[in-house]
Automatic annotation (TrEMBL):
This is HECD4. It comes from the Eukaryota. It comes from Poeciliopsis prolifica (blackstripe livebearer). The gene is HECD4. PANTHER family: HECT DOMAIN E3 UBIQUITIN PROTEIN LIGASE 4, NOVEL ZZ TYPE ZINC FINGER DOMAIN CONTAINING PROTEIN.
Length: 773
């Protein structure tokens, strides 16, 4: 294959596309997922002391995430609190641990490390940041600034510290906040790569320093300003009324521009200090208040979030800068997000925000609410390449000819990147659009093309080419969603792909690696109904992964992925039709799931007695976390109880057949609840027996931290099925719909045994209290 020296070869040009065009990352109203209230349990900043100087140097809230937990400071950047995000089994809003003494600064999560840069490091140019233990939130190491990389100038001011999950981005300016003349100062961005050398974290320069540049007048006027300018030809009262309705303030923007001294990125230095920023790996995004809207006036409209006029209000603007050269790229306005914290009246300045590389999400945090947003842009190219197991550095060919195998690899890398973007799109759209609507836009794949994919996978497995294997596994995850086998040739291709996937799944993990094993599980789970036609085959697979999962890491991971997906489907279709019943496993499979949950609960309770002191503190900082098996049982229980308690008869149809149908449906649900409740109560008895044994053993022991372990045992117990299943079940059984003689007669023996075990555990705890008194 000939390559022109002036024009890059087609394969090279495809790689430069980074998987296809995409929108820049920003906050959009249509991408807002959920908002929930929280309390960080950190001291409230005292604004009465410090005066104006302290107010100017306040940092605002800082937010970081590892994909499971959220790490937030208080509203002035002081302290650190670890909260559950509600993803991957964590308990949403629960404070796992906190450090009230951490000095003001910025916190990020980069390269599997929790990092913190205190504002005092601006006076210590030889220090970059410090490593924080994610379990105790205590500082454990100071990371030095790379050699010969000290900032120029006599003073410097850190404006923000960001991370895309892989690299560290330091935004700063060689100026002081107290300088009178700040015009003309540049805003620099340094990018670092973290590594471990001799057991210590070390930072290295990744790319040359860039200046964040935004020319005057590059951003367009906000929608409110346009509306107000159109109303100016009419009476002034109309403009004032519109400003009040939309939550805007009529300000003299010309006077503001003259009084504000801007930096190279178009914002004053003191404003940048509190400007929320995040980095997705391709862009740096600054969240600013729209022009002409003061922070105090950015409140909800008089008619609330449902008013058509309130939807015209711009809540915030995303200023997007390219990471490669620091140039301003675009601006996007956040308009329609009435349920977000900004829509509820939170100010943009001082907001905490970060990018979640694990889930491809954006998080924002005000003083009262945490918001979850889908990232509208494509994942950064180095994130995509990391998942595919290839280098993100695109090298120019040194010779005029390129080997055919290299061209094929580059084409596969491009296809793999496209499929990852497609998977992210499907995940982001699953909350707003049904999968059928998305599938209808796709062209069905032909059998010969599917067979070609299997040919490539088979050859890669023979040659041991892990990069191509990972690319094809990602392709399978997309293809299985669109492929519907009709002919015998189609079914033969499906059987062939299933054999290839199963061969990879059963291979030793040290031979294929954990990344390939994870992608295999995702591929099988996405094609579950395609690979296993019929209920009999599917139940056979589920029985295998549930019974043999503890003895095989691949089967264990496949079990977790399948149960997580089934739980999500049950949660989305809680009040769905009878078609959703196939997400509920039969009694035999539920029994295997329950056995795993009981074993997990007993194991975590036993750890309170057996693990070392440091490991026990780590355990307390990571519970409660719901396992996939427990999460599925919770979803099944909530599905049954919700449909039973909230069932409503059809008032428009009062015929005998309709009433008889409703009665039969209630009886069927009650029968399912009885079967599940019996299993859960029996399992709780076993867990309570273990709890009693551990409590008694701790009381009779002479370990130095006995009191701490007994107090922590309560928190650990709430993380088991005793805390997640039992309270909901017992409360729901008090509903009139479930107060039947059949249920009472069947559950009475288990309830009596449950009372006996809880009484014994409570008595042991009381004896311990009397002992200390």
């Amino acid at each position: 294959l000939k390559c022109n020296h002036c024009i890059t070869c087609p394969a090279q040009r495809l790689l430069l596309l980074e998987g296809g065009p995409g929108s820049p990352s920003c906050l959009l109203g249509g991408k807002h997922s959920v908002s929930w209230g929280f309390e960080d349990m950190l001291p409230t900043p005292d604004n009465s002391t410090g005066g104006a100087e302290s107010k100017d140097t306040d940092l605002g809230r800082c937010l970081a995430t590892d994909g499971l937990y959220l790490y937030t400071t208080n509203s002035s950047g002081r302290g650190l609190s670890k909260l559950g995000s509600g993803l991957h089994g964590t308990l949403r809003g629960f404070v796992y641990c906190r450090n009230e003494e951490l000095e003001p600064g910025w916190v990020v999560f980069s390269s599997s490390r929790l990092l913190h840069r205190p504002s005092s490091f601006d006076a210590k140019p030889h220090q970059l940041c410090q490593v924080v233990d994610p379990f105790t939130l205590q500082v454990c190491q100071i990371v030095p600034m790379p050699a010969h990389h000290f900032p120029v100038g006599s003073s410097m001011t850190t404006l923000h510290l960001c991370s895309d999950g892989t690299y560290l981005y330091w935004v700063w300016s060689p100026a002081s906040l107290n300088e009178k003349t700040q015009k003309g100062h540049s805003v620099f961005m340094d990018v670092f790569h973290l590594s471990t050398q001799t057991g210590l974290c070390v930072a290295d320069i990744l790319q040359e320093r860039v200046i964040l540049t935004r020319k005057e007048g590059e951003s367009s006027k906000c929608l409110n300003e346009l509306l107000l300018s159109r109303m100016s030809r009419f009476r002034a009262s109309h403009s004032a009324t519109l400003a009040a309705l939309t939550g805007s303030a009529i300000t003299n923007t010309v006077k503001e521009e003259q009084s504000a001294v801007n930096t190279s990125c178009g914002l004053p230095l003191k404003t940048l200090r509190k400007t929320p920023m995040y980095v997705c790996g391709t862009y740096l995004v600054m969240l600013v208040s729209p022009p002409g809207v003061s922070g105090s006036s950015a409140t909800r409209s008089l008619f609330g979030g449902t008013s058509s006029l309130s939807s015209l209000k711009i809540l915030a603007s995303s200023l997007v800068f390219n990471l490669a050269d620091g140039q301003f790229s675009s601006r996007a306005d956040l308009i329609d997000a009435p349920g977000s914290s900004l829509g509820r009246g939170a100010q943009v300045a001082g907001l905490g925000t970060c990018y979640d590389a694990l889930n491809n999400l954006i998080w924002t945090c005000s003083s009262d609410y945490i918001d979850q947003w889908c990232n509208p842009g494509n994942q950064a190219f180095h994130h995509v390449c990391h998942r595919l197991g290839v280098s993100h550095v695109i090298k120019e060919p040194k010779e005029e000819t390129v080997a055919t195998g290299e061209v094929i690899n580059q084409l596969l890398h491009h296809v793999g990147a496209m499929c990852i973007h497609q998977l992210n799109l499907l995940a982001a759209s699953s909350n707003s659009l049904p999968l059928e609507a998305l599938l209808g836009k796709q062209h069905p794949i032909e059998a010969r093309h599917f067979g070609s994919i299997c040919d490539i996978m088979e050859k890669a497995m023979v040659n041991g080419d892990t990069c191509i294997i990972r690319c094809i596994l990602v392709v399978f995850q997309v293809v299985f969603r669109f492929f519907n086998p009709q002919s015998e040739q189609d079914r033969e291709s499906v059987r062939r792909s299933g054999l290839l996937l199963w061969q990879l799944l059963m291979a030793p993990v040290d031979q294929i690696g954990t990344e390939i094993q994870r992608e295999v599980c995702l591929a099988i789970s996405s094609g579950l109904n395609t690979l296993y036609q019929g209920e009999l085959e599917l139940n056979k697979l589920l029985k295998l992964v549930l019974t043999e999962g503890e003895r095989n890491s691949g089967l264990s991971q496949l079990r977790d992925v399948i149960l997580t997906n089934l739980a999500e489907q049950l949660q989305k279709n809680r009040f769905g039709s009878e078609d959703d019943d196939h997400y509920r496993l039969n009694d035999e499979l539920l029994h295997y799931v329950l056995k795993t949950v009981v074993r997990e609960s007993c194991l975590v309770i036993t750890k309170c007695q057996t693990v070392a002191r440091d490991d026990f503190q780590k355990l307390l900082s990571t519970v409660p976390v719901v396992s996939p098996c427990l999460r599925y049982l919770m979803a099944v229980q909530n599905h049954l109880l919700s449909n039973t308690i909230l069932i409503r008869p059809d008032e428009s149809d009062d015929s005998d057949s309709s009433l008889q149908g409703e009665t039969m449906k209630v009886q069927e649900l009650q029968s399912s609840i009885l079967s599940l409740a019996t299993k859960i109560l029996v399992g709780c008895d076993e867990v309570l027996e273990t709890l009693q044994q551990v409590t008694t053993a701790l009381i009779n022991s002479d370990i130095s931290d006995r009191e701490t372990r007994l107090k922590g045992l309560e928190q650990v117990t709430k993380a088991t099925m005793l805390g997640h299943l039992l309270p909901v079940l017992l409360t729901s059984l008090m509903h009139p719909t479930l107060q039947t003689l059949t249920l009472a007669d069947a559950l009475m023996p288990q309830l009596v045994q449950l009372v006996l075990y809880t009484s014994q555990v409570s008595m042991a705890s009381l004896l311990e209290i009397f002992y200390y008194v």
